[in-house]
Amino acid sequence: MGRRGRVDRTFKAAAVAGLLAAGVFAVLPGQALAADAKPGLPTEMAPYSYLTGNVTSAPPGRAVALWQYGFGVEFMDFPQAVVLGASGDVYRRLDVAEGRHGAETQGDPGPMLLSPDGTKVAVGHYDIDPPDLAVVDLATGDVTTHPLPEGRSVIPLAWSPDSTRLAFGASTGPDNPYSGDPRWPVGSRLSVVDTTSGAVTKLPVTDYAAVAFAPAGTDVAVETPGSIRVLDAAGTEQRRLPLPAERHLAGPSAWSPDGRLLAITRPMTTCFDPADYVDPSGLVQDCDPSTDGLSFVDATGTGAAVPRPLEGDLSGTRDVLGWTSPTEVVVLDDLTAPTSPDFTDQKHWVTAVSVDGQQSRRLMSVPDDGNYGVGRFHLAGALAPDLEVRPAGSADSGTWPTVVRIGAIAAALGLLVSYARSAWRGRQRARRRAAYRAARLAAADTVAGHPASAP
Predict the structure, then answer these.
(1) Are 251 and 323 in contact (CB under 8 A)?
(2) What Gene3D superfamilies does the entry give (predicted)?
């Protein structure tokens, strides 16, 4: 055998061994940490990956965050729904949400919401008939489907603090998240489902935008045009709070843990003043960020004093993610200007901000480079008071997705077959060469008058 043949065989053997090892690794489950470990956030979110495994095949256990990774606007940018384990760098794709989408979502996962305790995710659908809600258990990967009495689109809006009841909107027709104002679903009915029994309670509200449960879980705050209505569990209105113009209830975690405040926000407005900049992700920064941060209303309706509004460059313009205490909120801030001394190379930060605006703490950086942007970011609100920030480690991505596993195993088998064929052909060539040499020796012996010697 020539040197080149030996090198080729050695290379193929090494490639086969490597791919077979990869195939074995691909089917091994990741290691979800114990649910009673202290929850935390890594200092940096892991980058977008095609190799992140699914919740159903490798459950992550309790999660601390849920988000959409990628928007399908760049080459090879496939939108993913991703959860982050509460006790380690455990990342999983929420395949149930990715499977509950239609043409109207442009590839985005279906509507989804992480429970406050991080143990489950509710997943709706923008166009489903008959209507139902799926609840994914992150400890087991099991999915419980709750049939609903009416509706064509189902949007999870807010979990109760004990993670047992879910407020959702069900509209009479399909919804399109990229058409109209998604905050104001047309013809939608607000209801609450008990995920332990499946019982559904309809609330007397059909014109609403956002919902937040009270800390005790008995009342819900519902944003309606010009006001916030506070309803009890039966849907009876308890009080109505004024809502300033161009302000919105700041998401399902808007209610402070002491029941005193409701956070409100105004989405980022845009301007095209040439003096302003356009940030790298293509979003136009607000002309006056000082007017667009979080502000607060008195949730009790007694006229009690509330903190001053926070500046937009401190608290961002998104919904509240949670509260670490009655005096500190957790938010996802906005991208800073490239000219700012705080510019962090196209990153958002999960940030804890005191309600008086005097202190802030950065918890985790979130990439937003325009290719694999992050959207619909949710935090397990009940875990916020105990969150620890830990150095980011290597990502545990669990069992590779099925397509990747099939590809890796197929490639390994292909190389194995190629190596076997090459080895068989090598043996055949060696036999032919041995036979040829024996024949030549026999012929030479015959010519010399000697009997042919055995090879």
Answers:
(1) no
(2) TolB, C-terminal domain
Angle of CA points 117, 224, 197, to nearest 5°: 40
Residue 299 inside a domain? The answer is yes
For residue 223, give the CATH number of its domain. Answer: 2.120.10.30
Q: Which of 179, 124, 178, 161 is nearest to 146 (CA)?
A: 124
Token duo for residue 325? 């205490």
Q: Which two tokens stand for residue 150?
A: 């009416």
Predicted structure pTM score: 0.78
Cα separation of 221 and 236, whole Å?
12
Question: 93-107: string of b/e by CB count within 10 Å (b at 16+)?
Answer: bbbbbbebbbeebee
The per-residue pLDDT for range 123-175, each reduced to its tens digit, is 999 999 999 999 999 999 999 999 999 988 999 999 999 999 999 999 888 88
Question: What is the Cα–Cα distance from 38 to 215, expressed in whole angstroms?
Answer: 22
At 251, list the tokens.
């998401």
Spatial strand order in the sheet of 248-249: 248-249, 261-265, 295-298
> If you search the block for the tokens 């455990």, which residue do you land on?
90
Q: Two tokens at 210?
A: 């956002």
414 within domain boundaries: no
- How far apart are alpha carbons 176 and 153 in whole angstroms? 9
Which element (helix H / strand E) includes 213? Answer: strand 211-213
Please enumerate in sequence order all residues whose Cβ is within 8 A of that of 224, keeping only pairs 6 or more positions apart, or say none. Answer: 205, 207, 208, 209
For the chain, the domain total comes to 1
- Structure token pair of residue 376: 């619909």
The residue assigned the tokens 């729904």 is 81
Contacts of 48 (CB under 8 A, 6+ apart): 69, 70, 80, 371, 372
Asked whether residue 453 is domain-assigned, the answer is no
Centre a 10 Å sphere on the Cβ of residue 251 and count the other Cβ atoms it contains.
Answer: 22
> Could you write out the DSSP letters of every residue in 29-52?
---PPPTTSPPEEESBPPPP-TTP
Q: What is the DSSP pairing of strand 143-147 with strand 132-137?
A: antiparallel
Return the pLDDT at 73. 66
The verdict on residue 134 lying in a domain is yes
CA distances from 123 to 109, 142, 410 (A): 9, 13, 33
